[in-house]
Amino acid sequence: MEPLASKIRPYKIEDFVGQEHLTGKDKPMRTALKQKHLFSVIFWGPPGTGKTTLARIYARGVDAKIYELSAVSAGKDDIKKIIEENSDKRKVLFLDEIHRFNKAQQDFLLPYVESGKITLIGATTENPSFEVISPLLSRCRVFVFYNLLPKEMKKIIKRTGFDLDKDAVDWLVMMADGDARQAISTLENTYNLYDKITVETLKNTVQSKFLRYDKKGEEHYDIISAFIKSMRASQPDAALYYLARMIDSGEDPKFIARRMVIFASEDIGIVQPTAVVVANEVFRAVETVGLPECSISLAHGTVYLSLCKKNRTAYEAFLRAVEDVKKYGNLPIPMNIRNAPTNMMKNMGYGKGYDKYSKESFLPEKLKKRKYFTK
Fold this sequence. Notes:
Number of strands: 5
CATH class of the largest domain: Alpha Beta
Helix content: 40-55%
CATH topology of the largest domain: Rossmann fold
CATH architecture of the largest domain: 3-Layer(aba) Sandwich
Structural class: alpha/beta
Distance between the termini: 61 Å
Order of helices and strands: HHHEHEHEHEHHEHHHHHHHHHHH
Radius of gyration: 25 Å
Strand order of the largest sheet: 2-3-4-1-5
Number of helices: 19
């Protein structure tokens, strides 16, 4: 039976919900469709935000033939078949989870994208700067997708045709947190299990044994959150348990390692600077060794980071500085620390009175007394 998410998937950009910065009037995807302009692109954003749907709408709208592959299971032979297939239409390869393609596979794909034999639409939940090789990334535009807004989620929920009261809709929107696929799947499973959709039956369904770990779904974020919080609380046993659950479920080890690098800077910081070095080496081991052996490095790194002292002062100081940047905008930089590469600028006072060991604050005049970082 065709899943509900597939049944209600829109076929025209006018019916597409969300991502107005890409699909609204005079925005890039709508303009490209209007002009039938075809180009390679990476769609980067959370699950359930419309990446697959927009790729299909785009290919159909520019009269191209779309081939859909998942980088989890696809390989070079699958790409060869697409290249060699005779077709009067331009070819679009939609490669879901492109971050799962290794460097050799991406290198293989590159010349076909360069020559225009295929147009690539990659979809990823991970930062393409880290996951896509530079030559391939340079030939693609990167469009960022965002979690759907509550009003957009409600519009999609209405399309399902299910009869829900306001409380059930509000709870579902809150639970799905901008992921349309999560909301639709929960609705479909609730109806199949209970025939009636209420807040209570929705909750029962989410907690049901029938809904297993989904690497793109809610538990994906719950477990990585539990993993990070266990390390933050200096609980290596709990952190190792959640690490084991992620590895056993098939989670991308690079996703785990990347979060460890972030954690080392954010939560350990200056109190033990070697933590960042260790976390980066774990990430490197994951890249070069791969599963299953790289799980050993992940375990070592997890215990090490858990046992480190924690200090967030540098990170929190930076956040306070960001608040002032947003509040005050680009305040004038003091003249004595401005760059003076020309005589004219020197005559204007740029760099005048600069003392590299000065005790006087180098902050803009309005913020002279600010203290972001405190030991």
